[in-house]
Amino acid sequence: MAENVQETRPPEPPPKPPEVPKPTERSNRSENLADPNESRQSAWQDIRNAARSEHTAAKTERDLTAGETGVGAGSGPWFDEGTNHRDGGAVQQTTDGSCVSASGEMLTDGRVTQAELLSELGDWSNLSALRDELNKHDGEGTWTGHYFQDGGEALRQASEGPMAAQVQAPFGRAHMVILEPGENGSFTVRDPNEGSSYDVDGAWVEKYVSGGVFR
């Protein structure tokens, strides 16, 4: 009688343990995870930097335009705050930057034309250059020109007679007009931007006039 032979199977190998990510993989994965706090801080830093750059640019422009740089802004808040606007009464500037030369023609009653001054001064000139050029025509010391210490000085000078006045709003480019005293503390502005005229008061002069050329 044959013996029962029990079939035996080899034992199954134990299950493999889960693979542990390599350090480099873990490091790379962690680098891809953004820290929300760092993101917010970076965003705020970008905003602060942008604001600082804008402030610096505005201050630089204000400082430059207050000095011996080009004048020729055209219309500005000084125009809007005038009254009794009317066409005519002023020599209109022939280029965007020739308000200084046009003002020089008005200041000399046409003896020196805008074209003559423009050929010497060029566009975007300034009050010191206008003063010096007019003195070449009329004799050294005939014309005075400088920037005023404050609005009070501007008003006192404007009250004494016509002048080529540099007008300027904060953080903006300057412009030049002719300013003439009128009655009861009023003034007439002859603006070469559009060749028009309008009236202003002493507060306007104190607010906008930063310098001038006058006898």
Description of the molecule:
The structure is a single chain. With 215 residues, the chain is of the alpha+beta class. It folds into two domains: 31-65; 77-214, Alpha-Beta Complex (Cathepsin B, Chain A), CATH 3.90.70. Helices cover 40% and strands 17% of the residues. A seven-stranded antiparallel beta sheet has the order 1-6-5-4-3-7-2, sandwiched between helices.
What top-tier CATH class of the largest domain fits best? Alpha Beta
Order of helices and strands: HHHEHHHEHEEEEHE
Determine the mean pLDDT: 81
Number of helices: 8
According to DSSP, the number of beta strands is 7
CATH topology of the largest domain: Cathepsin B, Chain A
Measure the end-to-end span. 146 Å
Instruction: Give the radius of gyration.
Output: 37 Å
Architecture per CATH nomenclature, i.e. the level-2 architecture of the largest domain: Alpha-Beta Complex
Shape: elongated
Flag low-confidence runs. 25-34, 51-67
What is the topology, as strand order, of the major beta sheet? 1-6-5-4-3-7-2
| Major sheet summary line | 7 strands, antiparallel
Q: Percent of residues in helical segments? A: 40-55%
Summing up helix and strand content along with how strands pair, one would put the structural category as alpha+beta
CATH superfamily of the largest domain: Cysteine proteinases
Question: How much of the residues is beta strand, in percent?
Answer: 15-25%
